[in-house]
Amino acid sequence: MELPVIDLAPYLSIGGGDDGSMVGSELGGGLSHLCREVSLILKETGALLVKDPRCTVEDNNRFIDMMEKYFERPSEFKRLQERPNLHYQVGATPEGVEVPRSLVDDEMQAKLKAMPKESQPSLPKGPDCKWRYMWRVGPRPSKTRFQELNAEPVIPEGFPEWKAIMDSWGYKMISAVEVVAEMAAIGFGLPKDAFTSVMKQGPHLLGPTGSDLSHYGQEGIVFAGYHYDLNFLTIHGRSRFPGLNIWLSNGQKVEVKVPEGCLLIQAGKQIEWLTAGECQAGMHEVIVTNRTIEAIKLASAQNRSLWRVSSTLFAHIASDATLKPLGHFAESPLAGKYPSMCAGEFVEQELAVINLKGNKEEP
């Protein structure tokens, strides 16, 4: 199965600038149908491919070029940007730190064992062997109960273009997420701004990963073990190396192929909360496949970098906003599974499980 591609241009041409309370019935028939398609695809697959004319192939390439140069630097250099005292929510996260949920969640492990063999993920044997860099994008609240989740970005030395490139690509991807959030809200029968209103000043993170294929290039190696994302929606530019598998709501395992010029969006746990489980957080993994190995051979022949970079951005609900089923979802029989709580508290609980809630006493 290949995911359908949703072109955001028709919605962008007339969907922006309307009153936030607008609902699908106030759109033209074509756009209303497009919004329902967005919500249906997210509900059934947990993932969505989109084309946004504001996010170009050149933008993605410029970003990946810079991140390849960064991840190629020695570990001692990259560790200078490590901030465990801030839950690794800014700066570098070394390989061997982030623990995949499937390694520590007994309930998830039981579900995995019950899956048909062809649908089972590659079970990790330890923490992920990938680096990550967290870069905060967008304005932060002047007052918040969750300072660690809203810390200032870290800039590595020797990269004068760092802030400009990170901010440019980050803001473009957030803009794409906001459009999808509006369309999904309309498709789910909520006001247009139901999601975007609680995203304002959220701790959005541009969090590219770096996986060293020259060292970990053997088929079956797990870079990101089977897990869901804890945030609202995750968006990725196209990686230069394949390896991402997702699981549809029916349990089917699908290898994702992102066409050039497209972006991949995945549902996180926060949208599951806001829709009382109507839109489930998408499960996924990143591993070395035979297609990855073919891409490694080609990159080696062309003398290109063998670091697999994902240009990933995690869009969040604002830390001090309340996470709870919205609108008609509050009447769902499943709403009780999603109790009202502060989004920042939810994030801290999730980070503790996957080993990213650092010791606040560390310098």
From TrEMBL:
Residues 224-316 form the Isopenicillin N synthase-like Fe(2+) 2OG dioxygenase domain. It comes from the Eukaryota. InterPro entries: IPNS-like_FE2OG_OXY (IPR044861), IPNS-like_sf (IPR027443). Transmembrane segments: none annotated. GO terms for molecular function: metal ion binding; oxidoreductase activity. Keywords: Iron, Metal-binding, Oxidoreductase. Pfam families: 2OG-FeII_Oxy (PF03171). The keyword Oxidoreductase applies. Belongs to the iron/ascorbate-dependent oxidoreductase family. This is Isopenicillin N synthase-like Fe(2+) 2OG dioxygenase domain-containing protein. It comes from Dipteronia dyeriana.
